[in-house]
């Protein structure tokens, strides 16, 4: 199993698959090896085999929140949104303080035009980790779509206050804030946001 993990880490995926299968031949109920095999199959682009492996893992270990989380992500990518939502809720039933699951559940609800449920999920993720930038950004965007511009502005400000932002993260957040200001008709304020940035790269990206 450890050798398989090392191979997966260096992207030697075929060898990782072989080693995971060897480990499972010795210990058929080895949960970590089952999960590693499923994720390696996914990384190889074999979505069908990965989905089957994850479903079998959940059948044998229904409390494995990582398995239901990754299954939900796979289903969401495949456009199987109702099934993805069920898998996210299964994950959260066993790991209710998993902000990534709440965030991705919110994205799935939004993709099904269930905006209010999406908002609730982002708020839930942020109640667990207020510095979770993905949910903060998704929340701000969702609030804009719901025409709640003042709430969106507050969340963009909270996003931009985070210390973990990359240059690109900051530019994306500033672009969102500027768009929000423009939709409110505050054109001078929107231009000022860009011009106040000391980093010339951010100024250029925001003005594009």
Q: Look at the helices and sheets and give the structural class.
A: mainly alpha
Helix content, binned percent? over 70%
How many whole angstroms does the radius of gyration measure?
21 Å
Order of helices and strands: HHHHHHHHHHHHH
Tell me the overall shape. elongated
Number of strands: 0
Q: Estimate the strand proportion.
A: under 5%
3D architecture notes:
By secondary structure, the protein is an all-alpha fold. It contains 13 helices and no strands. It has helices spanning 2-9, 13-26, 31-43, 47-60, 65-77, 81-94, 99-111, 115-128, 133-145, 149-160, 167-183, 187-195, 200-207. Helix 7 (99-111) runs antiparallel to helix 8 (115-128). The termini are far apart. The mean pLDDT is 94.
What keywords describe this structure?
208 residues, single chain, 0% strand, mainly alpha, elongated
Any chance you could write out the topology, listing elements then pairs?
Elements: H1 2-9, H2 13-26, H3 31-43, H4 47-60, H5 65-77, H6 81-94, H7 99-111, H8 115-128, H9 133-145, H10 149-160, H11 167-183, H12 187-195, H13 200-207
């Amino acid at each position: 199993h450890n050798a398989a993990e090392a191979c997966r880490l260096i992207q030697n995926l075929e060898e990782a698959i072989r080693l995971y299968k060897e480990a499972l031949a010795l210990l058929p109920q080895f949960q970590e090896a089952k999960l590693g095999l499923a994720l390696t199959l996914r990384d190889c682009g074999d979505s069908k085999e990965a989905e089957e492996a994850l479903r079998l893992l959940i059948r044998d270990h229904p409390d494995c929140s990582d398995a239901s989380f990754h299954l939900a992500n796979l289903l969401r990518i495949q456009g199987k949104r109702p099934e993805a939502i069920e898998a996210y809720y299964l994950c959260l039933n066993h790991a209710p303080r998993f902000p990534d699951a709440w965030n991705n559940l919110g994205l799935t609800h939004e993709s099904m035009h269930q905006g209010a449920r999406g908002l609730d999920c982002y708020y839930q993720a942020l109640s667990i980790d207020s510095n979770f930038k993905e949910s903060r950004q998704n929340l701000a965007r969702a609030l804009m779509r719901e025409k709640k511009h003042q709430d969106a502005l507050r969340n963009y400000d909270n996003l931009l206050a985070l210390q973990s932002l990359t240059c690109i993260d900051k530019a994306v957040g500033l672009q969102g804030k500027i768009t929000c200001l423009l939709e409110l008709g505050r054109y001078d304020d929107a231009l000022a946001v860009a011009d106040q940035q000391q980093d010339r790269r951010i100024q250029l990206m925001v003005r594009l």
